[in-house]
Structure formats: structure tokens, C-alpha cells
Structures
1.
Amino acid sequence: MRIGIMMGPDRVAHTIDKIVAMSKQAEAAGLDNVWMANIRAHDAITALAIAGRETTRIGVGTAVTPSYPRHPIALAQQALTAAAATKGRFTLGIGLSHKVVIEHVHGLSYAQPANHMQEYLAILMPLLRGETATHEGKHYRVQDITLGTPDAQPPPVVLAALGPLMLKLAGTYADGTNTWMVGSRTMKNHIVKRIAHAAAEAGKKNPLIVGGFPVVVTDNPKKIKQALAEPLALYGQLPRYRAMLDLEGVSDPTDLAIVGNESQVLEKIQSFRHIGVTDFMAAIFELEADAFERTLALLSAAIN
């Protein structure tokens, strides 16, 4: 199981210099990946392309870039450019976002999201493979488009998928899924099981399964859980995340945060290795003076 960190879910607006510095720090610690959310700050693909040029080994990936505001041709161009800039170390994570964001913020229709994503992937995936895309659908219509990026290998694509329809799309058309705060029972019996079945039916093996969680190594778990209540509250209200909490049988998003001392956090992280998670993605919330450094050190030790 690969281990990485995630930048962005705490809604801190990092500078480009900070993003590069954190990427270098994660690489120096021996981590496998650095992921970046695309919320309301820097464009994640562009920022990670820069970070990838400033590092030498670590993988970089979006977690995730919303599909609706970006035409699939434009996103394919961005992703291939990032893949070339990072010499093949870029992973494209995409997702639908949420109705409240797409309709209320962007002013776009969120009707038929699964159908939208199926059409989106029908255009995006061939373009990333260097093929010609032609599609005549309800949401998109493109004709004989090919992208010329000879210095870019097709980047892996992970689809933010929680429900059965999206997990089927992820297993059938993409290379895997990227999840956020899905409990261990739900991960094993719902996420891993469904996407593995869809991938097998499509003739694919070993889909990527990225599992993201808030992580804090601390000697004050009760205090940290209380501090996490406000930044995580939204995930208990958004329908897709609420459904995953209910499936896991927990009431509050903080119940899924991984908080404790080194041995407690390490034990929890290692438990995901055994249920099929291929990439563990830690969102370190800096709620104490040494929280980032201490948690990063634990993640580094967890690789060995």
C-alpha cells in the first residue's frame, strides 16, 4: 500500500511556494504521493505540475478536479501537460463535486450526474490514450479530436466514486477510485467489492483504490476530535458523504478521523492495507504546534 499526504481539505489557501515545499518535504520523508484538493484556491493540476518539476520521485495527483466546470477536451489537455511536466508521475483524480456547488456556485445543471460522467469518460479516456475521440451524446458532442502530446504517457485516472453507479463507472472506464472518509467496513464490503467486480467484468485487474482520511498524531485525541468537528461538519451534511457515514453506522464525520498516538494511528492505517486500499491518503490537520511534523514522521515509518 502506497502512502501519501493530501493538501487542501482543511481549506487552507497555500501559496505555490508552500505547495512545492510540502511536496519536497513529503518526498524527503519517503512518501509515495502528494495529493491536492481542487476547492477554492490554486488550480490543482497546474500547482502539481509545478511541484512535480521541483521534485524527482514522488507521485502527484488531484483529489479531485470537478468535471462539470471543465470540458473533457480541456481537462485532457491539462492532464497530459501535467503528465509530461512530471515525467509520468501525475495521476488525474476527477469527480462530480456536489449539487450545491455545481448549481449554486457555478450555475450549471447537475441533472443526471452519472450519465454526465459516463459521457465525460467516453471523451476523456480515449484522448488521454492518444486516440481520436468522437462522441454524440446528451451532454457532450465532439467530432474527430486528437491531442498531440508526444512527450506525455497516459496518466492514471481515478474517479471519486461512492455510490453503486459511480463505482461501476470507475471500475469499467477509469483506473480506480478516490474516496474520502469511508469507514473500514464500508470500504471493504462496498467500495472494494463493487469496483473490483466492475473492473473484472471489463477485463481489468487490480483497480487503484485511494482512501483519504483526516489524520493527526497527538497525545490529546479528545481535544483534537473536538477541534475537527467544525472543519469536518460539512461532510455530514452533503448527501453522498452522509450516505457513507450511515452505511458505516457512525453519526459524526469525526468518528472516521484517524486520531491518536503513533501506535494507534499506525495500527489503523495498516488495517486498510488488508482490505484492499492501494493508496492511503492522509490529510494532516495542523491543530497542534507539532502536528504536521509528528504525523509526517509516522507516515514515513508506516511505509517500512
2.
Amino acid sequence: MAFDVWATWPPCHSLFRWGGAAASLIAVGLSAVACADEKAEIAGPALTIYSPAPPSIMLHDHNVALGEALRGCGIPNTVVPQALPRSITQFSDASDNDKKYHLPIVTTIDFLPAIHHRGPAWHSYGRPYTDLKFVASLYDVAFGVLAFDDTIRLPADLKGKRIGAPPRPSAVRVYTEALLRDGWGLLGDVEIVDMKPNDLTTAVTGGTVNATTWNLISLSADGPRPMVPPLLEIEDAHWIPVGSDAVQKLNEANGFEVARSAYSPTPGNEVDLLSFRQALAAWEATPDETVSAILGCLKKNETPHAMATWPGLKAQYTHKAALEFFANHGVTLD
């Protein structure tokens, strides 16, 4: 799905906190950054930052807060909802000058596939975007299978079950099929039901689906924030843990690299799910001073090490100004 909504957002007094120190996320208390006295003015036109989430879900809130924080540091920008792969492929024929101030927010499921021209045909990058470069990790999102049947405790218990998931094309759908196919070897033994988040609660209580991958968990400074909160209140709702062997199989079979993400549904009850981390990317042609100003702004409330936290990150995938920034702060990439 694609979004064509252009949005501007209110000044710093309306900011809320996003990110999370405990999870090594980049955006702890960016409201403080947005209202800081110190500015990092940059030359050139305002940035366009592409949020891969629609305005109706919580991840877009995080991306809006990022834009507000950068403006508070003197970096003008507009945050535009634009789904992946479109936020990258729309620049297939664009010159360096036309795209250098257009920065996509990417996911672990899209970043390396976009660079190396990989992924399913229905969520594809028509050519390798080798000039797409990593700037900074933003925040983590926990992804997994939430089941609503007490008899479903292990991946094998999903055989013959119906799983609610977003329709193609969608990075969440890519992740869903990859986990079921490559991580657990179950894709041919389950039925994936195309669903929208608003329909999930009724579908679960009515027995239409037995599980879902839709309920992404934002790991924020204020605690875990589910995309569809009512789902966690349904009797017998529980997560199916993802083992390290499943992660290894996923990474061996696909053009992306993912890691596990620990999530605590209740205090003292931790379950290993998958990380669906989000990062700000740029282009090789994006000016060094622009990238440096962004990183300097974000550093006010996060460590450079956390800003470089990204599965499979290598120097070749990173903007040269970001490499210099990380090196200057003791973070070296291979």
C-alpha cells in the first residue's frame, strides 16, 4: 500500500516521548531535543522524511516526533507517510540532486533487500539501490505470532490454523511469510488470512483466526506499546517464542538480517520475539553536513553505540558522514 498524504506537525510544546533507553533505542526523550536552545542550522532545502507507516498506527507517531525533534535542532523537514518499497523506488530515475534531501525511514526487512535487489516479487526493488545508506537506528519494534488458543504453545501447534496478517505488499507480510516458511517450516501448513488491524478483535473473538502477526509492539521509554491493545486482553492471548535457530534459518534464507527482541508482556515474564528495527537512511549524495547535523541532534539523547545498533550493519552500507561520526565516538563498523 502507498500513502500520498503530506503532513506538517505542531511545534515543540506538543511533543511526546518515544524510544527507550532500556532497549538501546535512539530516541529517548527527544522532546528535550526539540525544545533545545542550541540549533544546528544546515544549508540547503528542507528535508523530506518518508515514514513507512500510515498515520493510523503508532509507528507513524514515532516518525512524526523524530521530525519535530530535528526541527527543534534547526533542521527543517516534512514527514510524509509513504510505504516501502515506494519511498525508495520512487527515486529509480531521479538524479542525485533530486533525491539527496529525501530520506526514507527503513526497516530491517527492507534495507539490505533494497541495496541488493532481493525480496519477493510482490514487495520488490526493481534494481539494486547501492547508494542507499544507513544514518542512525531509531527505535525497535517486537514482531511475532500472538496466539489465542491455549493449545497453541509451540510453532508446530500452528499447523492447520488461521493466522491474521496484512495483505501483500507489506514488510510485515514479508516477515510473516519468512518466519513461517524459513524459520519454522510451516508456511504450507497454515492459512494466512488478509486482515486490517481494526478487524482483528472481532475476527479473534468470532473464531475467524487463531493467531496474528499484526500486533507489533513498540518498545518505548514509557513501556511496551501494542498496536492493537485489546488483543492482549483476550483470554488465552499469548506469544509463541522465537528461538535462535529460527533466527539463523531466517537470515540464511533471505536477503535481510534480523535479531531477536526480548519483550515482557507482564513483569518478570519475558518472551523472545523478533526485532523489526527502524532506521533513518539517506543517499550517498546526501551532504555530509546534513547527516552530521542529524546525528549531532540525535546524540543529545542517545549514545552513538545505540545509534549504530542494526543487524548486519557494515561500513559499506553506512553514509560516510555517519561512519566518521561513529568512529569519532569509538564505534567502528566492519
